């Protein structure tokens, strides 16, 4: 019995350490911007480490790591117009990366998990944009459509970039999954 308890502690310790590393990588990748939008949002690989962690440790651990990453991104230079907007655009949006943990990290399921997690993140940003940044929409344009187009313009390229990177990583290093 003692060996079982020790292995559980070792397993949790490993998950915490890997989670911290993935959060740190996500923060670093968020600063390595390929393109930045004028009112916030950028094309990066910040989702990749969080998705990896979610695939490896599951939805709950992945959502926790994502929420911590989002919170840290908010603290290290995020824009917050309202507390609810801050929650939507940072901790909740990145907690959505945990959804990838519902999928396997093999082949098409890897891509499906990546897409579902990114679309859940997109939904958080669209909701935030429509509620808190409606004034940026051109006069006469539906604020929901504006928010969807604006946020998709950086989330979709980030999703494609992340999915391609994840696919190549899985093909090159299948033992990491």
Structural write-up:
This protein is an all-alpha fold and 177 residues long. It has helices spanning 2-31, 47-57, 59-75, 83-95, 107-132, 143-172, and strands at residues 35-36, 42-43. The mean pLDDT is 90. The chain has one domain: Arp2/3 complex 21 kDa subunit ARPC3. It contains six helices and two strands; from the N terminus they run αββααααα. 72% of the residues lie in helices and 2% in strands. A two-stranded antiparallel sheet has the order 1-2. 38% of the residues are buried.
Class based on secondary structure composition and strand pairing = mainly alpha
- The helicity comes to over 70%
CATH topology: Arp2/3 complex 21 kDa subunit ARPC3
Largest sheet, in brief, is:
2 strands, antiparallel
Chain-averaged pLDDT: 90
The CATH class assignment is: Mainly Alpha
């Amino acid at each position: 019995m003692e060996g079982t308890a020790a292995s559980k502690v070792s397993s949790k310790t490993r998950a915490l350490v890997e989670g911290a590393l993935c959060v740190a990588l996500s923060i670093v990748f968020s600063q390595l911007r390929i393109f930045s939008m004028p009112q916030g949002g950028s094309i990066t690989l910040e989702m990749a480490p969080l998705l990896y962690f979610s695939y490896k440790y599951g939805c709950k651990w992945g959502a926790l790591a994502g929420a911590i990453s989002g919170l840290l991104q908010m603290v290290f230079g995020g824009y917050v117009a309202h507390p609810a907007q801050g929650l939507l655009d940072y901790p909740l949006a990145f907690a959505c990366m945990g959804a990838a943990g519902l999928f396997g990290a093999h082949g098409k399921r890897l891509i499906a998990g990546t897409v579902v997690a990114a679309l859940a993140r997109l939904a958080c940003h669209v909701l935030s944009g429509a509620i808190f940044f409606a004034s940026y929409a051109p006069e006469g344009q539906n604020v929901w459509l504006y928010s969807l187009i604006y946020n998709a313009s950086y989330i979709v390229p980030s999703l494609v970039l992340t999915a391609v990177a994840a696919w190549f990583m899985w093909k090159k290093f299948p033992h990491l999954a």
